[in-house]
Write a structure and sequence with these properties.
Helix content: 55-70%
Strand order of the largest sheet: 1-2
Number of strands: 2
Largest sheet: 2 strands, antiparallel
Order of helices and strands: HHHHEEHHHH
Strand content: 5-15%
């Protein structure tokens, strides 16, 4: 019997799905209503409050789409709107206490996940994987200011 070489793209996809499933499972008890886009929004607003227009730019989507996500997250208690102290006409999206707690829980999961990978595969292997993934994405993508909040 010959060993089957697993398709690299399928491995990447399945690894991402496994990570996301683990994250959702870890957050399910305290945050059972987490939406698909919530993690990105929490990371962006965790870096700094921003308008819906800025959030739309960060998420590479329409202002209307970002507004719908913000409305939904506000309804579920993850974000709140406050007046912009620099522009009386604008409203800034801020993380609520619940949003801060969800972001902190997600970051703890990320750290635990990486520590598990290091235990199972070794630090050198995890750093090599990080380098490969960073190389696949490209330095310009990683350095893009829109994604800087994702690194925190």
């Amino acid at each position: 019997m010959t060993a089957t070489r697993l398709d690299f793209g399928i491995l990447l996809l399945l690894a991402c799905e496994e990570f996301v499933t683990g994250l959702r499972t870890a957050l399910a008890e305290d945050f059972p209503d987490q939406g698909t886009s919530d993690g990105y929004v929490l990371r962006c607003l965790g870096a700094r409050p921003m308008t819906v227009s800025e959030l739309a730019t960060r998420l590479n989507m329409s202002k209307q789409g970002a507004g719908q996500i913000a409305d939904d997250m506000e309804r579920r208690g993850y974000v709140e709107r406050r007046p912009d102290p620099q522009d009386g006409r604008a409203r800034l999206l801020h993380l609520s206490a619940r949003g801060e707690a969800a972001l902190a829980a997600a970051r703890r999961f990320h750290q635990r996940y990486e520590r598990r990978l290091v235990r199972e595969h070794g630090r050198d292997a995890v750093e090599a994987l990080r380098a490969v993934l960073g190389g696949m994405i490209g330095v310009e993508q990683v350095a893009d200011p829109r994604f800087r909040p994702m690194h925190l």
